[in-house]
Amino acid sequence: KLLDFPQDFLWGASTSAYQVEGGWDADGKSPSIIDMYEHPAGYADFTVASDHYHRFEEDIALFAQMGLKAYRFSIAWTRILPNGTGEVNRAGVEHYRAVIRACRKYNIEPIVTMYHFDLPWCLEQQGGWLNRATIDAFEAYCRVLLEEYGDAVKYWLTINEQNTMILHPGAIGLPKGGVLPSRRELYQMNHHMMLAQARVMKLCHAMCSQAKIGPALNLTAMYPETCRPEDAIAAHNWEVLRCWNFADVPVFGWYHPLAVRYLEDRGLMPDVQPGDRETLSGAHPDFIAMNYYSTATIAASRGDASDVSARAGDQQIMLGEEGVYRAAENPYVGKTKYGWVIDPTGFRYTLRKVCERYHLPILITENGIGAPDVLEDDGSIHDPYRIEFYEQHLHAMREAITDGVEMMGYCPWSALDVVSTHQGYAKRYGFIYVDRDEQDCRSMRRLPKDSFYWYQKTIAENGKNL
Ligand code: BGP
After folding, report:
1. Count: domains in the chain
2. The domain that contains 178 carries what CATH number?
3. How far does the centroid of ligand 1 lie from the alpha carbon of residue 188, in Å?
4. Beta bridge partners of 224
5. C-beta of 197 in contact with ligand 1 (< 6 A)
6. ipTM of this predicted complex?
7. Which of 63, 265, 301, 369 could form an SS bridge with 68, CB 3.0 to 4.6 Å?
8. What pLDDT, in 10s, does the model give residues 325-352?
């Protein structure tokens, strides 16, 4: 018999600042890397996005109508500290105070991401995450957040999808000229982000004894393509390099042992300064926040360049590595219109693995299906594929709870339509439709999709229908 969802389960939904807010230079905000990067031609710009910056009251009122008990959003560093560090922009601080107040008005728990891809451009120009000074800047920024909102926010997320930023840096846009950092540089940046995260987890616990904080990683279990032992080793290789190496550092204080050997063999191990190990082992998360979209299926390397291929429907994301692993097809799972694998059982499987590895409660901070939703003449949006996706994933999560996994909540992507990282408004995720397309802002009206009403009912029944 399936266990029920916990009574205090955080039924929520997510967004991130740069993908939803617009107001890119409003009230003293400085540009972030996202504002300065190159994006594909014809792609929706971020200057308006879904205009949540100006319409958050209306949006949060709709979230309340949907029954949300939590809203996961990110704060734009560039609104709080336009110079990356130093002087605080009061207008930026007051903006998010108003957002938090709007949540509280409806008993919606704010779950706040401190950093979701949008590094201040001024810091990038000084070397970005390659520069150790960015660690201090991040700590200074987060100190302001904890001082200003520490009494009103209980749940904090440090860094969103650090593993995506390091392994697939092109996925969030390209620097002008298209040159990405080398892998050696990326792992050095990774080390600095880990240090920054550890310092902020420690600071959060020191400043806000009631608060809970954790990393938000994109985690995905890997299947071997066959029961050939070499396929199993390759699947394990990629699971370690893609997932566990990023979560082991905050939880256990150091890199995964297999990843260390991998990095050393290839000259990719970051420079570690005296005191770094103590910093990493001196802080601990209260939970693991996890973004889950799909699983991957992996085969043994062929030992040549044919191991590397683009992910289906996604030229920005290359998979496979010569001598390490190769991406394979899985005939047992479905796919979205954008080629992303749909695998609810893989969700249960990933949750079991994360629980088993870290023995920490899990908060889902993203899960969802991107689709080209259609607005009908009568203002309705029929998205049965989204309802089906959520039904299946929530059922799988309930099975995971029954298995013994401790779940804190579920914040799918996304609360309302946002700019997709590289497919603009062509690919939508929201429960609420935003009436605009790439170039034409049209009315910007908010229109509940069918999935909105489905989620409303599901929350009201605490998931008993699943
Ligand atoms: C995650 C990001 C989100 C979001 C989502 C959907 O990786 O944390 O910011 O965009 O993926 O991805 P996409 O917009 O590329 O479809």
Report:
1. 1
2. 3.20.20.80
3. 24
4. 298
5. no
6. 0.97
7. 63
8. 999 999 999 999 888 999 999 999 999 9
